[in-house]
Amino acid sequence: MSKQNSLDQYFLKRKENNETNTLTKTNRVENENNVTQSNIIASQPDHLTANTTSVNDIQPINNNTTTVISNSLISTQLQVKTFTNNTQSVNSNSELALGSTSTNDKIETRSYKPWYSQKFPWLYYQPNVGGFCRLCRNYWKPGTPLFRNMEQKTKGVFASIPFINWKKALGDNGRLMKHSRSEYHLIALDNDKFRQQEGSVLNQIVTVNEAQKQENRDRLSDLFDCSYFLFKNELSHTTLYEPLLQLISRLDRSSKLADFIQNCHKNANYNSTTSVTELLEATNDILEKNILKKIQQARVISIMSDEGTDINRHGNLCICIRYCDQTTVFSGIHNGVAAKFRALFNLAILFIHCRAHALQLAVISAADSIPDICKSLSTLKSLVNFINRSSVRLTLFEDIQSIFRNNHIKLIQPGDTRWFSNSLAVRSVVHSYQSLLATLENIYNENNEDSAEALGLYNILSNEATAFIIHTLQPILDTLAVLSKCIQTKSADFKQLQDFISSTMLRLEELKDYSSIDYINIIETIKKLSLVSSGIRNSRLSISNAQLTTDEVFKTKILPFIENIINNVQARFEQSALNLLNCFMIFDMQNMNNNKDYGDEEIRTIQQHYSSDFDESIMYEWKTFRTYLLTQKQGGKLMTQREVCMKLVQDGMLKDIYPQLSLAAEIFLIAPISTATVERDFSTMNRILTKLRNRLTTKHVDQLMRISMEGTNTLNEEMKDEIINYW
What we know:
Blueprint: H1 2-43, H2 46-49, H3 63-73, H4 77-93, H5 95-98, H6 103-109, H7 114-119, E1 123-126, E2 130-133, H8 134-139, H9 147-154, H10 175-181, H11 183-198, H12 201-232, H13 237-251, H14 256-263, H15 273-297, E3 303-309, E4 315-321, E5 325-326, H16 337-344, E6 352-353, H17 355-368, H18 371-388, H19 391-403, H20 421-431, H21 433-445, H22 451-461, H23 464-488, H24 494-511, H25 517-528, H26 540-545, H27 550-573, H28 576-581, H29 600-609, H30 617-634, H31 641-650, H32 652-657, H33 659-670, H34 676-688, H35 698-710, H36 717-726
Protein name: HAT C-terminal dimerisation domain-containing protein
Organism: Rotaria magnacalcarata
GO molecular function, one term: protein dimerization activity
């Protein structure tokens, strides 16, 4: 029994201790709430607390109050005594209301104060829980970057875990100040500022969408740069486009292009041949649109055209909008293109034959009347074909050039249609004449199937008369080649053409003198050549021709050839078109004089030819402009014919004062003297349409040619935006 009583007393005492601890905690929470309410009242302004009860008006809590509280909260005698004692301590000295130091005041310093949130606007207090940072609580979520680092360093306080240690809240090193300076709070603060600047959710969506759209356009711009590089440089766009993109992606340090291609949907693969073909078509359409717009704005246009055959044996007509070029078919009097144009459009249309073609025809016609000249040119063709047709013979020719310590010279194939290819062919043979003779002799001594042809070519070249003819052709054809190059320049006009022709005619007249230094050097060169070989038998032709001296060859063959060239050039270059264009010579200030009638006849000729474009006012404009030019000349400001015409066209003031003269000057400037531009177009076509790319369609060849010839070196941003919008 004694043991049982001892156990009962132990558990009873333990139960009373637990109830006492629970009651103490409950009273502490209630006191904290009372203190908080009193602090709130004390912190209110004077006009809000004027009607409140003063400290002296506090009435002591009577037994009725004690009874009410005890009946509602506690039932044991210990709880009543505890609450009564607390009530009496408050009523006796009013220490809590007077703010004196006490146990309750210590509890108060450890609680939240409303002015904390005024000093730290981000602080949010939740009663009975603790304080939070409004910014960090909204920003730091489990899916936010650096969330784990934040939890490890801050334990989640102020973000997911409330702050309750208010005793250490204040001060420069307090928890509130430390948090406001912390890295993670500043990140949340920047995010809040960004959201306030962005505005509503709809605005954010629109902003992000526009940014993504601009990023996509920038990457498409990169794709256009890659594809345009292939188009402009005449490279295979279907096979090199994807490798080029891969190379650019590897070189791009930002990896933007690589990420763009990788993140594209499967149905939007921009590195395919279909995509690059679409880029080609879009680029061509925009370029063609801009070219047509410029043509439509032009007051005067010239049309140049020619036809040729590509590698697939398809006929192609190339047209350049600048001037008109016609061959014999184009310039028929009754059924040619020129006659049809005049019948359909305007009789004033000026048809100009290509001067470079005319010069080539003049040389061919001059050679046809002299058989030995034709045979010499034919021998050159056979010789070049014989050497270049076999790699063994070509290698032997190069080895012999090395033995003679000569530069390796490539033999050029002469042709009647290629402008002055004969000049290049003659020059290559003359510079390697001794090596060619040695090569032919070596091939003949091998006694194979090529020995007979090598013997025939050797006998012709070793003949002194033939050697003299071939060597004398070089200065003649070189003189005409210089004239041809001058004609083919883009900036050449008919005034310069007349100067070129005059200088060429003077040079040909010099070459008619057998005693000139050119022929003296040629004769010395021929004497140094080993034209006779003991190992090769001479043919009858070579023996009979050997009887002719160089003086006789010059008088009977070279001199008539030069005279024929001069006559043919003069005949082919003096046409009605030149007579009209020569009227524009009046703009050359060097030819101007003080004659009152200077240039009047030429102006009337221009007016009569273009009667629908000019009236009598052009004569009045000319008289005024003539005075202006004379004044400039007297002041020492000389200008060429081309410079005067350019000034009339480009100077806005002169263009407004002399509108008809400006139009006449524009007609002169666009008049072509050759079809070199069209020939360059065919060269471009041959570079694009090769054997490896022979499956290109005519449409795509046309587009690639237009981009190669008319496109800029690089696309500017305005052009790329226009292409992207069109695409």
